[in-house]
């Protein structure tokens, strides 16, 4: 009997798990179907292709990931290993990231407590994470103190702002003897640009706004952010390399990271094809609008993903707090560290190159 080509895949074998099974074997051999299989495919795509030296890797962070400890436990090691070259995050993740670095604690709790009682006792809840209300006040004071410094009295992009903040956060970590807890500090140390797509939508933005009322001069240049992120992606391609994105969650950071290619092609009129690799970890659905325009196939129609690279895309419908530690452990076990690209230091040059290509395209189309 002839065998259908559909049956050419690896056989599903119900191997018995024993105590010697490590994370890489668990993912490679036991994640055989459903979203476990998609996570396996994502981990293998990440390590086998995306972490090649010629690939520039962007990561977006949405949802309360840093309060759960995933900044220090996952994102920082990935940055240190050279596995993440640029980041788009919610401002909230970066704000809560700072709590740990300046010596505050968050605690394991329950989602089934009486929030009226928590309010009375001055306890903040993020689902099952609990912490003292004074942590917010202290972190607000830390940011206001930084914003009052002379170097912040100007307009700047969020990458520059986070780089400057990361310098102070790094010093605070060292002073307190806290090791590698902060994404902002790691971004500063390794030259990884960190952007916030909606800088007013967090406690950091709220404190910047408050300081503006007091006459301080910090303003965010969001247009610079749009152009810098597009320049990062264009540079990856023009240097003979490739571009990949790893998206945790959705929302504004997801779109901000993916819109780099439409910005290059549609708006600036520069010839390009789209990102080469695409991994998304999400619990959203396209049919209700939460994932619309951002599945790999839809992203192709927008020019966000190179249509010839659609096989190098994976969406795993799984909780980021489960997927991120597994993906991090797998990558660190499978791949040797890459040399950090230190893109932050190259941003002025990348912007020049983007402008040059845009000008050339305009002249050509006149």
Q: What best-fitting shape do the alpha-carbon axes yield?
A: globular
Indicate the radius of gyration in whole angstroms: 21 Å
Task: Using the coordinates shown, work out and report the CATH topology.
Answer: Deoxyhypusine Synthase
- The SSE string, one letter per element, is HHEHEHEHEEHEHHEHEHEHHEHEHH
Q: What is the name of the CATH class?
A: Alpha Beta
For the record, the CATH architecture stands as 3-Layer(aba) Sandwich
Q: How many angstroms separate the termini?
A: 63 Å
Strand tally is: 11
Number of helices: 15
How would you summarize the topology of this molecule?
Elements: H1 23-30, H2 34-50, E1 55-61, H3 70-80, E2 86-89, H4 91-101, E3 107-108, H5 115-121, E4 123-126, E5 129-132, H6 133-147, E6 155-156, H7 158-176, H8 183-190, E7 194-196, H9 203-213, E8 219-220, H10 222-238, E9 242-248, H11 251-258, H12 260-267, E10 277-282, H13 296-302, E11 313-317, H14 320-334, H15 347-364
Helix pairs in contact: 2-14, 3-8, 3-14, 6-9, 7-8, 10-12, 10-15
Summarize, please.
With 366 residues, the chain is of the alpha/beta class.
Structural overview:
By secondary structure, the chain is an alpha/beta fold. The protein has a single domain (55-364), classed as Deoxyhypusine Synthase, CATH 3.40.910. The protein is built from 15 helices and 11 strands. The strands form 3 sheets. Strands 7-2-1-9-10-11 form a 6-stranded parallel beta sheet, sandwiched between helices. A 3-stranded antiparallel beta sheet has the order 3-5-4. The protein is globular. The chain starts with 22 loop residues before the first helix and ends with a helix.
């Amino acid at each position: 009997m002839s065998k259908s080509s559909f049956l050419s895949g690896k056989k599903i074998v119900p191997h018995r798990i024993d105590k010697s099974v490590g994370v890489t074997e668990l993912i490679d051999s036991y994640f055989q179907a459903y979203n476990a299989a998609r996570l396996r495919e994502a981990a293998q795509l990440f390590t086998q292709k995306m972490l090649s030296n010629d690939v520039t890797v962007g990561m977006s962070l949405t949802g309360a990931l840093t309060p759960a400890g995933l900044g220090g436990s996952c994102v920082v090691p990935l940055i240190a290993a050279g596995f993440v070259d640029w980041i788009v995050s919610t401002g909230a993740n970066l704000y809560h990231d700072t709590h740990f670095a300046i010596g505050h604690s968050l605690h394991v709790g329950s989602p089934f407590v009486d929030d009226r009682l928590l309010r009375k006792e001055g306890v903040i809840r993020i689902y099952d994470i609990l912490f003292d209300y004074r942590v917010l006040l202290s972190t607000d004071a830390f940011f206001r103190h930084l914003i009052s410094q002379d170097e912040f009295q100007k307009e700047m992009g969020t990458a520059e702002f986070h780089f400057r903040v990361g310098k102070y956060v790094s010093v605070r970590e060292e002073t307190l003897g806290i090791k590698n807890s902060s994404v902002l500090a790691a971004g500063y140390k390794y030259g990884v640009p960190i952007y916030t797509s909606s800088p007013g939508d967090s406690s950091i933005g709220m404190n910047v706004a408050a300081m503006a009322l007091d006459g301080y001069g910090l303003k965010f240049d969001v247009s610079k952010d749009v152009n810098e992120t597009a320049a990062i992606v264009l540079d990856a391609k023009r240097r003979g390399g490739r571009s990949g994105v790893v998206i945790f969650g959705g929302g504004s950071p997801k779109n901000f990271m993916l819109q780099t290619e439409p910005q290059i092609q549609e708006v600036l009129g520069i010839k390009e094809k789209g990102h080469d690799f695409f991994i998304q970890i999400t619990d959203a659905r396209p049919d209700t609008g939460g994932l619309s325009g951002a599945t790999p196939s839809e992203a192709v129609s927008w020019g966000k993903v190179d249509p010839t690279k659609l096989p190098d895309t994976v969406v795993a419908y799984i909780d980021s707090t489960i997927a991120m530690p597994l993906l991090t452990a797998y990558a660190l076990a499978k791949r040797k560290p890459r040399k950090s690209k230190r893109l932050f230091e190259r941003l002025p040059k990348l912007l020049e190159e983007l402008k040059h290509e845009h000008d050339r395209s305009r002249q050509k189309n006149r």
